[in-house]
Specification:
four-stranded mixed β-sheet, binds inosinic acid, alpha/beta, 20% strand, single chain, ten-stranded mixed β-sheet
Amino acid sequence: MRNVIILGSQWGDEGKGKIVDVLAERFDIVARYQGGHNAGHTVFIGEKKFVLKLIPSGILRPGKTAVIGNGLVIDPVALFTEIDALESAGVKVTDSLFISNRAHVLFPVHRMMEGMSEGRPGRVSIGTTSRGIGPCYEDKAGRRGIRVADLLDREAFRAQYDSVMEEKAAIAKALGIYDELDFARIRDQYEALAERIRPMVCDTALLLNQAIAAGKTVMFEGAQGTMLDLDHGTYPFVTSSSASAGGACTGTGVPPTRISGVIGVSKAYITRVGGGPFPTEALDGEGEAIRKRGNEFGAVTGRPRRCGWFDAPLMRYTAAINGFDSLVVTKLDVLDEFDHIRVCVGYRVGDRSVVGMPPTVAEIAAMEPVYECLPGWRTQTFGIDSYDALPAKAKDYIAFLEQKSGVEVGCISTGPERNQTIVRAGSRFERLLS
Ligand code: IMP
């Protein structure tokens, strides 16, 4: 059995897209388990750049099966925009993509609702991706959501859609934003898209469990990151799904007893997009230098990412929540030119040290990070593909991250290409994937 969850250790954008793409060749199936087209996984293959939002990065490997699990919310318009772009770039999608009949369908009204709540005076703006993800999950939890299986049943869909949209229209009217949507035209558009989705839809929990029983291997691809998890993240500055490892089971229907390992992904530093606490954010010239060297701008929204230093206590927290067996450190080369590199080794409020991760934004904002400063290596690591070839100070930096966060670093990425990757011999990472 080799079924592994790969997910982000912080607030998303850890470089999972490339890692999932690199590792996909070792698995038969790649499955997404939560989120929607708020995710943006950038993968470079030669000159070609692919930004995958809803479709698992594994789709770029011919012969692999890709699954969109029940835990996702799907905007069919976004789905087909992505499918069409991939197919016109020569990637075969429709033959190898399977979509859960239990996934929820996202409608334009969800975006409208989100725009309203994000912009409302007196409400704390989360700084969302404005894709309507939160309101779609609200409908799911409110038991009024429309699922892919409902969309495929034309008569039932009409009745359900009209009833749900009547409620939405009443809210929109009360808020004076009713004119923005043509509910009947959208229904017709979704009915047409249902016919395009139909051939890809199945009970993906059954598909995955049967495949596992037959000896096939599955990689579960997390989107966003643990600190954006609805339960475990920096609430309310989180996304609306279960991005941490537990979500892989609820979001696909594969039981915990079938999971063999969990791998976390982190950059050699940290970034965050949108609002919310970020203890090690570098608000000085060094943050700007990281942003420039790392080209830290959102793959979905283009927003500049907030940049800061590696946070070991935060990593200890997310390692505990997810049970990380090993860590992948990406974008090591971005730190190549720094004289000194800071790493947070603890938090303090006054002279009291903080144990664990506090639950409220106010408590997190009150903490002061305690830093240790490591010497930079000031040598190019870009493209290095063997651990031995790394400069000694870069190896010291990796060893320090391992020691302070308590998780081995089994894989290091030194550039966007597939071959710019180091897998450490003898690591748990290597064993988990062989
Ligand atoms: P939502 O997922 O659009 O509701 O946004 C909620 C929060 O999650 C915002 O801070 C977003 O910036 C953040 N977020 C959502 N998806 C991603 C992602 O793929 N990478 C990084 N941040 C994300």
